[in-house]
Amino acid sequence: LRLKGRVLLAVEGINGTLSGDSEQIQTYMDEMAQFELIGKCGLPQDANQSRETIRPEHLFRGVDWKKSISDISTKGSLVEPFPDLKISVVKEIISTGGSVSVEEIPRLGGTHLSPSEFHQAILENENVVLIDVRNEFEHNIGHFVNPQTREKAMNPETVTFSSFEGTFCERRAEELRDKKVLMYCTGGIRCEKASVMLKRRGVQDVSQLQGGIHRYLEQYGDDGLYQGRNFVFDQRVDQNHSSQPREIVGQCIECMEPYDEISGSRICAVCRDLVLVCPSCCSRLREYHCRRHQTWKTCYYTFIDMFDQKELEAQHQSLSTLRDSYTNKNMRRTLFRQMEKVRERIKQLEEGS
């Protein structure tokens, strides 16, 4: 079919995005709907039944396929969202480090709300708590806003979803126990596990947006409660849901001017998270630092060869002071490694190398 994209295969399911022309995509969906497990793969070796007595398993009938059009172009030519096709076998399609099993999802997962139900729930409940399950850089360029309170959804402050339980749930579950929680993500997958994490910690009234922001924007577009861009992990960068100029909700981390252009070349020197930095500020910065590491930006750099000995000694002193201010072992370890790196460079300069 000459499709391109990224597909993850795991015991718990399949997740991915594929690109192609409309005919190729439709053929793929038709073939998936016709796929029958026993007929294609045969019976397990330890099966005690004959093929004739086993009910056919059409695993992919009724899949809620999400489709969108890519219109990105360079110099007048359309650019495909993916350069090639990559299929990977993984332990989890959404990594939690094994903390959430697939068996827990139907038992502990949140209530699924359609886009219209989700929309209505926000309008009817002034005190509802909106939680954005995505990573911080995704939240920064687009999020839901409660129209009654004008408060935007809670930011989990995560770099990757695998840290959602430790970074968000561990700190915030207690205050959410008696609240009505509405959570959302890009397509709905991350919420399946995020809702389990919260409910295991005693948060009972948890609902999630079925089909994610993608489905919501298809239904509501500019007339909904979602503001800004919906980030996607391919060359499109975001889901194009409007013919109108989009509202910019993001801000440059340096000058705080409205800005929402994400670039893979602008990442935090410490944690490698994507950072919003406008072109004007880019031109005067050596490296970039995310919100969590703003206090590190005068002393923590990936490339240190351009600094002289006096500058490096000042960095080393600042790193030492920062390290003494933290009790978190990971933070202290990260700073100590950078101190060692700077110390080694100072030694090289002293030796004339």
TrEMBL record:
Q: Which residues form the Rhodanese domain?
A: 124-225
PANTHER family attached here?
A: THIOSULFATE SULFURTRANSFERASE/RHODANESE-LIKE DOMAIN-CONTAINING PROTEIN 2 (PTHR43268), THIOSULFATE SULFURTRANSFERASE_RHODANESE-LIKE DOMAIN-CONTAINING PROTEIN 2 (PTHR43268:SF6)
Q: Top-down, what is the taxonomic lineage of the species of origin?
A: Eukaryota, Sar, Stramenopiles, Ochrophyta, Bacillariophyta
What is the protein named? Answer: Rhodanese domain-containing protein
InterPro entries annotated for this entry? Rhodanese-like_dom, Rhodanese-like_dom_sf, Rhodanese_C, TrhO, TRHO_N
Q: Name one Pfam family in it.
A: Rhodanese_C
Q: What species does this protein belong to?
A: Entomoneis paludosa
